[in-house]
Amino acid sequence: MTRAGRLRVALVGLLVGLLELACRAGWIDPVAVIPPTRMVAGAWRLLASGQYTKDILLTLSNVAIACVLAVASGFAGGWLLYKLPRLRRAADPLLASYYSVPTFIFYPLFIVLFGLNRWPLVAIGFVFAVVAMMLSTLQGFERVPRVLRRTARAMRLSTTQEMIHVVLPACAPHLFTGVKLAIVYAFIGVIAGEFVLSGAGFGFQVAFAYNSFDNPTMYGLMLLLLGFVGGLNMLLYSWERRMYLRRGGR
Amino acid sequence: MSVDAVAPGAGEASIARAEQTAPHARLRGVTRIYPSTAGGPPVHALGPIDLDLHRGEFFSVVGPSGCGKSTLLDVLGGLAAPQHGSIEFEGRPVQGSVPDGVGIVFQEDASFPWLSVWDNAAFGLRRSGIGEPEVRERVEHALAFMGLGEFVAAYPAQLSGGMRQRLCIARTLVTRPRLLLLDEPFGALDQQTRLLMGDELLKLWRDTGATVLLITHALDEAAMLSDRVGVMSARPGVFLDMVQTGWPRERDSTIVAEETFGRITARLWGTLRGESIKSLATGRRAPVQ
User: Fold this and answer.
1) Contact A71, A133 (CB under 8 A)
2) What is the pLDDT of residues A82-121, one digit of tens each?
3) Which H or E run contains B2?
4) B82 touches chain A (CB under 8 A)
5) DSSP 3-state assignment of A199?
6) Looking at this predicted complex, what is its ipTM?
7) Contact of A187 with A61, CB cutoff 8 Å
8) Model's pTM, two decimal places?
C-alpha cells in the first residue's frame, strides 16, 4: 500500500474510532447514533439472515440496468453531439443546466409511462446518469489529439479501424470517467427514488427502518450500502489511476 | 528560381544520375486554398508548385512560418487534396489517401500512450495483416536501429521527447516506406539532440535507400542533411530557390564544421530573410486546416 493509502486508512480508522468513543461515552445520544461496532454487527446480521437479500438484489439490478442504458445512450448521444456541431450548439445551454433540474419530479410521469414496477426507478437512475456519460464522451472525442487521427490516416486505416484502434483508446480515460460517474449517479438516483417513492429496495428499507426507530437495521443497511458503493468506487478509482499513470498522468 | 550546386562534389554526381531517371514523386501546378472560416476570406496557402523528387534523394523544404510547408507535405502524402494541379508517386496519381509506400512522421508526439514501445512500433504492421514472425523481425530491427531496444516494454510516458520521436520514426520505418515525409520531426528537441537525431536520420536514409522529404524551420538542419534544399516564399508558398548541397552520401553532423556548410546556410538565409520579414510584417495567421 502507498503512503497516501496508509494515511487514508488511518484517517478513516481515526474517525470511526472517535465515533465509537463518542457513542460509548455518551457524548452522542445513543438513540440517535449507535456505535460503529454495533452498526457492523447489524450489517452482518442483516446479511446473514437473508431477510433483505431480495431488496438488495432489486436495487443492484435496477442500478445495473440504469447504468447500462445510461452508458450506451450517453455514448451514442456524446458521439452525435461531436459529429453534429449545430446540434451541440443548440443543446449546450440545456446540458449545462441539466443537473439543476430535480429529476425526481418526473417520477409520477414515469409511473404513468411505465406502470407501478421497477422501471420508473430505473428511469430516474437513467436520466440522472445519462448526461454525465454524454458529456464525458463528448469531451473524450474532442480531446483526441489531431496528430493521432492524422497518424491513423497516414497508416491507411479505415474509418472503422481508426475508431477502434485509435480514437476509442485515445479517449478511454474520459469514457472511463463517464462510466464511473454514470454508476455513481445511477446509484444516487435509484436509492433516493426508493427512499421517498418506492415500496421495495435498499432505499425503501432504510426509510422503513428509520420510520420504525429500528436503528441497528437502519445503520446496518446504510453501512452495507456505503461499503458496496465505496468499494466499487475505490475499484474504479484504482483502475482509472492505473490508466492515467500509464499515460503519463498523476 | 535558380538551381545550382553550392558545393560540387560526389553528391552532385549522384543527383545528376538520379535526375536522368523518372522522378519518384512529381508535383505539377499544385495549389491548395483553404476555404473561408468564420466569415473570413479563403486562404491561398500553397502554389502553384512544380517539384520532382528523385528516387533516393534527401530533399528539404525551408520557408517562413505559415508559408505552406506542411501543406505541401499533406498534399504530397495524400492527407489533403489540392484544388489545382496533379501529384504522382511512382507514376500513379495521389488522390485523397496516403499511397502504399509512403511513410509520414509528424512534428507532434504521435506515439500512442496506451501502447508499449513494442506495440507502438508494431501498430501499423499488425493492421496491415503481416504475419507475426515478420512483425517481430521488423520491429526488433527498427527499435534496435533507433536505439530503443532496451525500452520495448516501456510506455511513451516513460520516454524522453527525443525517444518518443525516435519511436514514431521506428513505427514508420517498419512499414519500409519508399518515400519518407518528415514534418519537422525534431522541432521540439534541443540543438544537440537534433544534431544527433540528424545523424540517425542520415544513417536510416542510407540504409533504406528511401526518398526523404524533410520539412524544417532550421536552416542548419536542412543544409546538413540534404542533397537538395527548396526555399519557399511567404504565403502562398512557391519555390524561390533550389540549392544542391553537393554533400557525399556518407556524411554526418561533423560537416557543420566545413566552410561549405556556412556558405549553404548563408545562401539559404539570403533567400529566406526577405520572405521571413514579409511574412512577419503581414502578421497573417497560418491557415487552420
Assistant:
1) yes
2) 999 999 999 988 888 888 888 888 888 888 898 888 899 9
3) strand B2-5
4) no
5) coil
6) 0.84
7) no
8) 0.81
> What is the Cα Rg of chain A in Å?
22
Domains of chain A: 54-246 (1.10.3720.10)
A158 touches chain B (CB under 8 A): no
In this complex, is the C-beta atom of B37 within 8 Å of any C-beta atom belonging to chain A? no
CB contacts < 8 A (A, B): 63
DSSP secondary structure, B193-257, as one string: HHHHHHHHHHHHHHHH--EEEEE-S-HHHHHHH-SEEEEEPSSSB-EEEEEE----SS--GGGGG
Angle at CA of residue B110, ends B115 and B95, nearest 5°: 115
**Grid cell at residue B235:** 504565403
Query: Is the CB of B123 inside 8 Å of chain A's CB atoms?
Result: yes
Q: Which residues of B touch A156 (CB under 8 A)?
A: 97-98, 100, 128
User: Quick one: CA dihedral B237, B241, B247, B252, positive or negative?
Assistant: negative
Do A179 and A71 touch, CB atoms closer than 8 A? yes
User: pLDDT for B133-165, tens place per residue?
Assistant: 999 999 999 999 888 999 999 999 999 888 999
